[in-house]
């Protein structure tokens, strides 16, 4: 366990930011919290949601598609003939 603490406190890993709170990948070493998957967590959150985050789910936009009923009936009738 001491070897892993030395890895995080060596300066290679940066402490997590407030957006990382609640993630399952956080490791605590010397009263600081570090991400065990990525060395610079603030860079992952710069463009949006961190792809390593286990506590945040991406929002998926589902738009309503309009279906032309005339074309739909022709497609259905065409597949029955074959």
From TrEMBL:
It comes from the Bacteria. InterPro entries: PxxKW_fam. NCBIfam families: PxxKW. This is Uncharacterized protein. The lineage of its organism: Bacteria, Pseudomonadati, Thermodesulfobacteriota, Desulfobulbia, Desulfobulbales.
